[in-house]
Design goal:
The chain has 210 residues and is of the alpha+beta class. The protein has 5 helices and 4 strands.
Length: 210
């Protein structure tokens, strides 16, 4: 049925993961490669610069922590996300912090925009981490309730910093724009921390998230 951010959720997971892999193969910083690719997209580039700067991209982190990055242009809005993760002594991943920069044109109600972004992030992180619909051998859906389809709980929600870019452009979408970057920023951070590249969701099929 309907899905928040529809096709952009999986197409941008593929694209932003591939860009990260290309950066590693070229021995480039993932943010620097995106800067080059966004040279003709100044609004998305500005979101990238703001998110990276506020998240401390390139600055040293404590041991057992890493960051991942992803960008999006969707519904007329332009955004970038940096996700910081940690790993405990039982090899479990925790999402520690998300920095999300958004240019959605004129911001009529900033609190509503932040609420939409935060809601989209929590929705998308739950889906990326744990969401899976399972079919039985006859093709019937076994995932009938939340005992089989966990969502993100309060104890797992990271610190979320939403940065709104002042703009005189017409207002554009906010309700779905934070969904597409959630999964790739998370999996890119996990790769930076563990060396494990995740190309199939949910993440917990590969590594546990708490």
């Amino acid at each position: 049925m309907v899905w928040r951010s529809v096709g952009n959720s999986h197409t941008e997971f593929a694209r932003e993961s591939a860009i990260d892999e290309l950066a590693v193969a070229a021995r480039r910083d993932p943010a620097d490669l995106r800067r080059e690719l966004l040279a003709d997209n100044p609004r998305t580039l500005a979101a990238l610069e703001l998110a990276a700067g506020r998240a401390g991209w390139g600055a040293a982190l404590p041991s057992r922590r890493a960051r991942g990055i992803a960008c999006s242009s969707f519904l007329g809005s332009h955004s970038a996300q940096v996700t910081e993760v940690s790993i405990d002594n039982r090899d479990r991943i925790r999402i520690e912090r998300i920095t999300f920069a958004l240019d959605c044109g004129i911001t009529v109600n900033p609190d509503l925009v932040r609420a939409q972004v935060e809601g989209g992030l929590v929705f998308a992180l739950g889906a990326a981490a744990w969401g899976e619909i399972v079919l039985d051998e006859g093709g019937r859906i076994k995932t009938q309730n939340f005992d089989r389809y966990p969502v993100m709980r309060m104890q797992s929600v990271p610190q979320i910093d939403v940065l709104l870019i002042p703009s005189d452009e017409p207002p554009t979408g906010v309700g779905e724009v934070s969904v597409p970057t959630a999964a790739p920023a998370l999996t890119n951070a996990i790769f930076a921390l563990t060396g494990t590249r995740i190309r199939r969701l949910p993440v917990t099929k590969t590594i546990k998230i708490v």
